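pls design
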């Protein structure tokens, strides 16, 4: 298979000093995917600056990043254009992976509902997979990834299937018409980034949320396996589209 072209929609608008000290999420996604597919091409479009592809010619897959923004905040000038672009991706069956905010934005764009949960998901998030799919190999029915969210998907769009979740976040992953896969969690986040994020949020979030997240610092992180599944998801859908 030729090297595929994966485009990341950058939706993270965090300008805090700790965030700026790290690569932006488009670079994080590319670095994460290159471990598995070094010959693929990775580019980023800055949705937060109003950039969107004019068409999807030459694009084999799209990743929509996480963000501290709310996908329900229509005061942000790029949110409605993002939702419109998601509907175009869906209509043209472009393989798409939504991460955290991306998971929520896809749900909202396609008719689902997003709202605040009773408590924050911060630190480690646990996903129990309940519906194995072809790209999920090697199979692992429970996965631990970083989490950083208060909003989450409360109702899936029509036709979506829930692939897994947790007690705190029942809709932790969706699959829509074979070509869209989402997760509420963050495979691109490192423990170092999470440690600094918790330092940054000290005093801004309830003390129990910060304490609980810090207590999970030594828990497993299955990001490597999840990003392998992502690569296999794009490959499976590319073969399906080119048959």
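designed seq:
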């Amino acid at each position: 298979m030729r090297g595929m072209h994966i485009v990341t929609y950058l939706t993270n608008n965090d300008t805090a000093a700790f965030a700026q000290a790290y690569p932006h999420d488009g670079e994080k996604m590319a670095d994460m995917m290159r471990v598995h597919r070094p010959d693929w091409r990775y580019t980023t479009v800055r949705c937060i600056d109003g950039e969107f592809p004019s068409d999807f010619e030459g694009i084999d897959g799209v990743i929509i990043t996480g963000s501290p923004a709310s996908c329900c905040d229509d005061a942000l000038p790029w949110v409605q254009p993002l939702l419109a672009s998601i509907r175009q991706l869906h209509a043209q069956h472009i393989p798409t992976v939504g991460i955290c905010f991306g998971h929520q934005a896809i749900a909202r764009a396609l008719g689902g509902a997003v709202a605040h949960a009773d408590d924050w998901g911060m630190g480690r998030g646990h996903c129990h997979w309940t519906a194995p799919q072809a790209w999920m190999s090697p199979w692992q029915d429970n996965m631990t990834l970083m989490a950083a969210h208060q909003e989450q998907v409360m109702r899936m769009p029509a036709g979506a299937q829930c692939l897994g979740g947790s007690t705190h976040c029942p809709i932790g992953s969706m699959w829509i018409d074979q070509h869209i896969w989402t997760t509420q969690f963050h495979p691109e986040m490192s423990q170092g980034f999470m440690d600094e994020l918790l330092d940054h949020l000290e005093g801004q979030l309830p003390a129990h949320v910060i304490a609980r997240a810090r207590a999970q610092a030594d828990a497993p992180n299955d990001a490597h396996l999840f990003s392998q599944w992502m690569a296999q998801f794009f490959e499976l859908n590319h073969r399906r589209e080119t048959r």
